[in-house]
Design goal:
The chain has one helix spanning 26-37; strands spanning 2-7, 43-56, 64-76, 79-88, 91-104. By secondary structure, it is mainly β. The protein has a five-stranded antiparallel sheet, covered by helices on one side.
Amino acid sequence: MTASVTVGVDDPVCAGHFPGAPVVPGVFMLGLCSRAGNAGPDARLGALRAIHRMRFTQPAVPPCEIATTATDIIEVPAGARIKFSITVDGQRAGTVDAEWEVGSV
């Protein structure tokens, strides 16, 4: 499960976060993790149930390419706990450990 996106300096996702020194919001990167989980043919991630840990070690300053890759998938009742690694311009930038509902396509 992987997903990536290029974010430009004028990208609307950065509007107001922070004027004059844009930074890609963490919630946008969480959404990218969800998008990666929805890329497979067999299952789709549903509602976000819980965030167990979300840590960023460097900011995503546009213009940049953000990529996320699932590193661990644990089945839980009616869902999945998935750990993702996040990179910005190829450099490790954070991790997400979250739980989603899972449904069939």
